[in-house]
Amino acid sequence: MDMKTVEWKDNSVIMIDQTKLPNELIFVEYTDYRDVAEAIKNLVVRGAPAIGVSGAFGMALAAQQSNAMTKEELIVDLETAYQILLQTRPTAVNLKWGLEKTLDIAKQGKTISEIKNSLIEVSKKMAEDDITINKKMGKNGSELFQNNDTIMTHCNAGALATVGYGTALGVIRATKESGKNVKVIATETRPVQQGSRLTAFELKHDGFDVSLIPDTAVGYTMANGLVNKVVVGADRIVQTGHVFNKIGTYQVATMAKQHGIPFYVAAPLSTFDMKSDAEDVIIEMRKGTEVTGMGDTKTAPDDINVINPAFDMTPPELISGIITEKGIVKPPYEESIKKLFN
After folding, report:
1. Is 10 among the residues known to form the active site?
2. Which residues in the chain land under pLDDT 50?
3. Which of 133, 174, 215, 266 could form a disulfide with 325 if both were Cys (CB 3.0 to 4.6 A apart)?
4. Three-state SS for 23?
5. Is 47 within any annotated ligand binding site?
6. Has 34 been labeled as part of a binding site?
7. Do 120 and 234 reside in the same domain of the chain?
8. Which residue is catalytic, options 2, 235, 280, 296?
9. Is 156 a known ligand-binding residue?
């Protein structure tokens, strides 16, 4: 997957439309930050690192769009854009990280043209850094995996969830690149099928031995010895080591614990939230139609109540290690995570 999920080109933001995969590879182009906000909200772009960079690009677009005559007016326009972009996905902390970084840079600028240029430069650098960080993380994580391991992953934490290379899939890539033979089991990840549509697509495209399972077969697969390691990504990790990731991650981690299978999380430092407690994190609830049908086909009765959380929380006692660009942190997490940021 050497193509970029999101990039800045000719004062536009270019994205792969992930709602169309795996049937079509379509690139969309945005020149309005409000369209970037809609793209984040509607999963055209998804994955914590990718939406962090997309948010930064949205801020750069907002600066270009602004007709402000003074720095103060431009900052007001950017603060409006910040709020619109921030409200699209409340759980993944990378989005807030990308928005805050660009807004801080804007406030330090002296002139309108300086601010407009600096926001383009800083967001492009964030995109480049994302790939570099993922490769460092992959190299660190590859040490945890052995030749002939079969690795389970949930959702999509690959090149498509980042600017490129991936977090959890970056670790799997780096393991293969180090000369080890690995197989992958991908969960389908209902209800939006990020596992079957994106992870399976990505790994097959890149020549991996990958098998797809329904989410309900995680226990069967583990009980029958078909998997011996798990690695997933994260949308937010708080300082206690509680991990917020795609709905179903908690089930996979619980099953892994039951069967004595190491369960790893791969995430960059930008995914860590050192200010919030686990109970403060808002779990995004998505529309019921994601569950009551597939495409135009109805699969549930009319007017049925639906509970459709996008994320769940995995407690630290289920996690064998957290892989970052600075190394692998192990329990007790409160101490080891603090050390990462010192």
Report:
1. no
2. none
3. 133
4. coil
5. yes
6. no
7. no
8. 235
9. no
Position 75 in a domain: yes
- pTM metric for this prediction: 0.94
Domain total in the chain: 2
Please check if 256 is assigned to a binding site.
Answer: no
pLDDT digits (tens, 9 = 90+) for 130-175: 999 999 999 999 999 999 999 999 999 999 999 999 999 999 999 9
Where do we find the tokens 């970029």? 4
- Domain end: 114, 135, 156, which one? 135
**Residues 59, 175 share a domain:** no
pLDDT in the model for residue 1: 56
Residue 45 belongs to domain spanning = 6-135
Structure-block tokens of residue 115: 């601010």
In a domain, 78, yes or no: yes
148 labelled binding-site residue: no
Which residues, including other chains, have CB under 8 Å from residue 222's CB and lie 6 or more apart? 152, 255, 256, 258, 259, 261
* Residue 221 sits in the same domain as residue 131: no
Rounded Cα gap, residues 162 and 147, in angstroms: 26
Of 135, 167, 196, the residue that ends a domain is 135
Please state at what angle helix 48-65 crosses helix 71-86, rounded to 10 degrees: 150
Buried b (16+ CB within 10 A) or exposed e, 45-72: bbbbbbbbbbbbbbbbbbbeebebeebe
Q: How many residues does the chain have?
A: 342
Q: In the chain, what percentage of residues exceed pLDDT 90?
A: 97
Compute and round to an integer the Cα radius of gyration of the chain: 20
Was 89 annotated as part of a binding site? Answer: yes
Contact at 8 Å (CB) between 197 and 295? no
Summarised one tens digit per residue, pLDDT across range 252-296 is: 999 999 999 999 999 999 999 999 999 999 999 999 999 999 888
Question: Per the annotation, does 308 bind a ligand?
Answer: no
Q: Are strands 12-16 and 27-30 parallel, antiparallel or unpaired?
A: antiparallel
